[in-house]
Amino acid sequence: MPAWNEILRRAAFLRRRSQFDRELDDEIRFHIECRAEELQAEGMPVREALERARREFGSRARSAEDSRAAWRFQWVEDLWRDVTHGARAFAKSPGFTAIAILSLGIGVAANYVMFTVVDFSLLRPPRIPHANEIVALVSTAKDSNASAVSYPDYAAARDRSESFQALAAFTAVSAGFAAHPAETPRMKDGKLVTSNFFSVLGAQPEIGRTFSAEEERVRGNDLVTILSHSCWQDSFGGDSGVLGKRARINGTDFTIAGVMPARFTDVDDSLSDDEPSFYLPIGAAPRVGNAPDLLENRERRSLTVFGRLKPGVPLPRARAEVATIGGSLEKDHPETNRDRGMTVRSIIEFRSGGGPGITLASLAMTLAVMVLLVACANVAGLLTSRAPARAQEMAMRLAIGAGRQRLIRQLLTESLLLAAGGGVAGILIGYIPFALGKRLVMEFDPKLVALFPLSGDMRLLAFSTAVALFSVVLFGIMPAFQATHTDLVSVMKGAGTVARRRGWVRKLFRGRNLLVAGQVAISLLLLTITSFVYAGVYKTLVTSIRNPGFQVDGLVGVDFDPAITHLKDLRAAQFFKELAGRVRSAKGVKGAALIYQDVAVIRPESPAARDDVKVSGVWVDEGFFDTFGIPLIEGRAFRATDFGPSPAVAIVNDVLVRRYWPGQNGVGKQIRLKAGQWVSIIGVARINAFMAFGTGPMDTIFLPYGTPKGREVMLTARSTGDPRGLVEPIRALIHDLDPDQAMPDAHTWQNTYGVFLRGAMLSLDTLGAMGVLGLLLALVGLYGLLAYEVGSRTREIGIRMALGARAGAVVRMVLRYGVALAVCGVGAGAALDWGAERLMFALLGVGSNASGDPKPPEPNGGGQMSIQIGTEHFGHEAFTILVVAVFVITLVAAYLPARRAARVDPNVALRAE
Amino acid sequence: MPPANPELLPGTLYLLVLRTLRAGPLHGYAIAKRIRDVSEQGLEIEDGSLYPALNRMLVKGWLASEWGTSENNRKARFYRLTAEGRKQLARETESFERMVSSIQRVLRTA
Predict the structure, then answer these.
(1) ipTM of the complex
(2) How many distinct structural domains can be found in chain B?
(3) Contact A34/B at CB under 8 A
């Protein structure tokens, strides 16, 4: 390769530069002397001959310089010169440089952080071969967006549909797992799966085999399990002879049939907390506890169903077919499937939870893009305001002989420098949210760190920087064209005034005005959206965390998994009752309570309730109200005597009373439970919602604790001192009472609430920061434009003042200009807001009140925060305040340069001519 | 591109140097002298412009250079053609001849 050799030769030159210079010098001297000798030989006197030889040779310096130049990497040196020149220019105007780089940095950071998070949590397909072919089959309902499917419905879809190659299903299960029967079981997460689960995912076991179709149906003794790679390593030391051994899961022995490879995941890999430790055939569900009727009960909707479409079957056809099956199930089983249907979702739709997840994500991304746009507009404004000055410099350089190409390259280099600075600033700024997020996650549960992106995606950073670069180059290069297209004389002489009369300049100016008005509009939109979301989310989420309705300090919670070992219904109830009693009498305990939560379907005896309603149900024992210190505004708390075989009492919250019996006492009112039994209200508690994050006030009913039936039971104790001191004693009590019991998780409520609160605040602050930064950026742009505008009219103002205009009139003139821009911007912003409001309500379903199903969020530890936008419409107060703020700042931005202009001494201004 | 000597057609300096070196290695002064003598003073090359051209040809790999002793017993840098240089000479000669003959055709007929 000659080109390659050439580079090598040039590179070799770099090392022997001084030697080269010496040799070249010798060579030239030799040349001249030879010529002189020749001339002497022709009879010329010595001195004259040397003189003549020198003259013939020409400039020795130039010859040497040109020879050296032949060896150099010319473009590298030009680039270096451009870079240093640009850096010097930037150093001379540090304000401009800092603002431009900071603007770009903020825009880039906002963009790539947001896109990284969204990409990480939603868009990235799971690690499954041909993941994009996978579709999910979900159930739909009028009053909820839950999507899980019951086993009988799944079986019907599997048997009747023709669109799928196969449909698989699974549900999560937690169980006490012992590597051999003698060992104390430990809680581990597993999955109950259909036999085709692995084949639909396209996964092969690392050793052994997967389930056979018969094993899916087996409910007897020949039970088999498949371990995950990590469970195989942790519990069996990676023993290759593990196949055929038995593991005890919730008291039943399972034969190990296979081990899945490391990194095997299914469709919800990034959404689940932990990799499952074991897989069981779904037929084994009754043996491991939590839902004995999983396989029969159509109301037990807990399966995630997925499959692959047959080749050539489009998604809509599969959807239509599944909808038909759902419709016939609704007809055949009205008692369970009323208002229920089924549909098919693409893997991305499914992973984002259908609607709200994607819309919230796109909202966040839109905001981030808007910040970047504002930043780019801002930098564009700054650059164009410098353009006339630069144009003068360019004209000067053209005049002394610089090539146009060279000038354009110079400006291009400067733009690149600016964009690179913006990119670096973006990395630095973008690091902050990741660092904060990581600290928070580490504090909460170090195991979860793997589930969060801890650094930005470099491709996205590159993309954001490229967008910034594009705008910077577009506007940064303008002075070069400006300079190369104007006649040099007028630009050099008149600082732009002459040039301004030319058509293209006027166009540019109109463009600049548009830029600033647009910037005001976009930043206004940005601010209203963020303030709307901020206010809404803050109101519900942060308030619900900050004011849970009871004192959080001093509480310690122990969560028992529903699949609690070998204890069944009544025995489990006894176990908990006994445990609560022992904990209550333990040292340092002020009170203890048992709790489990679920949706309660009730019918208050009230004209306001025409049908069954779903409310948040909390089943508690008699220690609950004392332990939590939840105040009762009417009636009394539960007593031990309320806990008969069929208790007939209930306590409700004030929210529920206000809804169904406004202005009346709640005590004595009747409520029918779903089973048909009537209970009467004996007390009314003052609490907005019990342990529900971000949902706002919720109708809540407290019922006497019975048999938990597969619900997660929580024992909560209030300590007299540091609640952490109670964890070990409680664990010891559990072990004393039942040595076979798997050790549950314990946590202080203060910690849990604190982490939630800070998590919520972090996301809110990020959101708020984007709005505020957008506005700040826009204001800087506005200020820059006005300052420039006034600066470029200095001469005009001087003439006006010389002709007798008063300072006040001049200031008014400039202010008028600023206000006109602000009015345009605010007007456009208001129009955009109006549109955005409609759009957001449509997307988020606010207003139509999608919160019909007050499904209680999982109690702490589950970590699921369902966020609802609490505000029903854009706050008009917020909007008014924002508009006023934009106006005020516009006026200030216009006033300062206006005052400066008015102070201009007419003599100075005119002399500049 | 080298700054063109106004007396020469663009690029012909390379051709002349390559052609001159075909017979064997020469030092810079000898190249200049040979061109001047052979062209019977018809081609005026400013001696100073020879060295940048030689260096550019070194960079391109058409020439190689080494120090040796001149006929008057002094240290001098000798340039010789490389294989690549010979190929280049063939190429340049051909295109030059094509150009010249085209020009001549135009001059004869137009």
Answers:
(1) 0.88
(2) 1
(3) yes
